[in-house]
Write a structure and sequence with these properties.
This protein is α/β, with parallel strands linked by helices. The protein is built from 12 helices and 14 strands. It folds into 2 domains: about 200 residues, Isopropylmalate Dehydrogenase, CATH 3.40.718; about 160 residues, Isopropylmalate Dehydrogenase. The protein is globular, with a radius of gyration of 20 Å. Bound molecules: 3-isopropylmalic acid (IPM) and magnesium ion. 3-isopropylmalic acid binds next to helix 4.
């Protein structure tokens, strides 16, 4: 089997704990299934800052660019609250997204049957939920210039962030959303704030034009992003694919995550454009949740989103669809069996540790 390279960036907080569970699965697949994954590991976030004063080193950046796929844990924590803005832990993640040109962020929110009682919403609202948020990831207010704080000299300061989108950026993310929809429920809802933002006006125009030109077999609707957030908690099952910009996508995907019972459940894939010659895409896979410094090192973190992110890696980077589905099924089977990490614990279930959850998922995967 051809060699498949994966660059691991466990990061900070619970990142290393949940990553080591997936590492054990990778070793298992190499030994038992001849998967031929070759892994290398680097530092990102606060741990990279501690080692060399940067949120990710140039050397690790090069390895990320050269790998077939990057698996990312989480970054940040109170320890680095006061480090300079340019080298704060999050800067490592943002550099990876920008330098690898990972413009398409896929965030599926699936409510596992066993967890419909863990959501803060009524079970009938979330049972069977399966939506996909397609978030633009390399543009908008995250990267727009100017981005400054200026001292006005009169005791006042002025802060500026710039929301900026060009046609091609909206076209390509809309294209991803429509393609994804065709393989699912065939519906796309585009969210922006065209009632107050010029970038929202352009977003709406370009999504509409892209739809008309190439994807008019897909059902398209538009919502203002605030109303979209409201509809997500009112009746989320009305959605199939949601396409939105970088900042709205950040917020709406946290909302969507919580519908599924816990932030600890949601994976994501960040993809670049297919290479013109090989068709391969640069890709990074990460759980949507953060580094959870409050529970780091206690062995109680939920590794499911990390496993589910690896399942997305198997699907999108290695076209290992059967293995990806097997892993997703293993997660569901383990949840059905009634074991839970603390964040998704409920009456009548058995609470287990990170490692026990990892073992259970690997066992179900090999069964
Ligand atoms: C996310 C995170 C990041 C973001 C942070 C860590 C920079 O919240 O991936 O959703 O805002 O994009
Ligand atoms: Mg976020």
């Amino acid at each position: 089997m051809t060699e498949r390279s994966i660059f691991l960036l466990p990061g900070d907080g619970i990142g290393p704990e949940i990553m080591s569970e997936v590492k054990a699965l990778i070793s298992h697949m190499n030994e038992k299934d001849g998967a031929n994954f070759k892994t290398d590991e680097g530092l990102v976030g606060g741990s990279a800052y501690d080692a060399h004063g940067q949120a990710i080193s140039d050397g690790d950046m090069e390895k990320a660019l050269a790998a077939d796929a990057v698996l990312f844990g989480a970054v940040g924590g109170p320890k680095w609250d006061d480090v300079p803005y340019d080298v704060r832990p999050e800067a490592g993640l943002l550099r990876l997204r920008k330098d690898m040109a990972l413009f398409a962020n896929l965030r599926p929110a699936i409510c596992y049957p066993a967890l419909s009682n863990s959501s803060s919403l009524r079970p009938e609202v979330v049972e069977g939920l399966d939506i996909l948020i397609v978030r633009e990831l390399t543009g908008g207010v995250y990267f727009g210039e100017p981005k400054t704080i200026t001292d006005l000299g009169n005791g006042q300061k002025r802060a500026i962030d710039t929301q900026v989108y060009e046609t091609y950026e909206i076209e390509r993310i809309a294209g991803v959303a429509f393609e994804m929809a065709r393989a699912r429920g065939n519906k796309v809802c585009s969210m922006e704030k065209r009632n107050v933002m010029k970038s929202g006006v352009l977003w709406n125009d370009v999504v509409t034009a892209t739809h008309k030109a190439k994807y008019d077999d897909v059902e398209l609707s538009h919502m203002l992003a605030d109303a979209g957030g409201m509809q997500l908690v009112r009746w989320p099952k009305q959605f199939d694919v949601i396409v939105t910009d970088n900042l709205f996508g950040d917020m709406l995907s946290d909302v969507a995550a919580m519908l599924t019972g816990s932030l600890g459940m949601l994976p994501s894939a960040s993809l670049g454009a297919p290479d013109e010659k090989t068709g391969a895409r640069k890709a990074l896979y990460e759980p949507v949740h953060g580094s959870a410094p409050d529970i780091a090192g206690k062995g109680i973190a939920n590794p499911i989103a990390m496993f589910a992110s690896f399942a997305m890696c198997l699907r999108y980077s290695f076209n290992m669809i059967a293995e990806s589905e097997r892993l997703e099924k293993a997660i569901a089977t383990v949840l059905d069996s009634g074991v839970r990490t603390g964040d998704i614990m409920s009456d009548g279930c058995t609470q287990i540790t990170t490692t026990q959850m990892g073992e259970a998922i690997r066992k179900a995967y090999s069964a």
